[in-house]
Amino acid sequence: MEEDIKTPPHSAEAERGVLGSILIDAEFGEDLRVLDICLTHGLEPDSFYDPKNRILFETLLSMSQATMPVDAVTLNEHLRSLGKLEAVGGATAIENLVSSTPTSAHAEYYIDIVRQKHVL
C-alpha cells in the first residue's frame, strides 16, 4: 500500500507577495520596512515552502545584514555572484515578483499568511 504524501500547507502567492513587497519597499527607499516586519513576526528562510523563495528570502536577509543595498538589480547581481540566480528562476522571476505584487501596503497580511501556514 502506498502512503499518501501530503503537501504541507503553504501559500505560493503570499510567499511571492512577501518577497515582492520587500523589493517594492527597497525600490521606494523605505529602508527595508517589510524585511524588518518579517523579522519581528518571526519569519525565517524555513518559513517559505518553495525552495526558490527560501533562497530569495535568505539572500535578501544576508544582503540587508551586510548593509548592501537591496533592490531587484542588486539581488540579481548578488545571486549571480553566488551562482544561485538560475536556481531561483533567473532575473525574470525576480522581475515578476515586483510586477505581480500590487503594493507593499498589504505586506503584513502576506507575512502572517506565510507564518501561519509554516506553523501548521
Describe the overall structure.
It contains 6 helices and no strands. By secondary structure, it is mostly helical. It has a single domain, classed as DNAb Helicase, Chain A (Orthogonal Bundle), CATH 1.10.860.
Number of separate structural domains: 1
- Percentage of residues in DSSP E strands: under 5%
Number of strands: 0
CATH fold-level name: DNAb Helicase, Chain A
Radius of gyration: 14 Å
Largest sheet: none
Q: Report the top-level CATH class.
A: Mainly Alpha
Fraction of residues in helices?
Answer: 55-70%
Name the average pLDDT: 90
> Gap between N and C termini, in Å?
26 Å
The ordered string of helix (H) and strand (E) elements is HHHHHH
Shape: globular
The CATH superfamily appears as DNAb Helicase, Chain A
* Total helical segments: 6
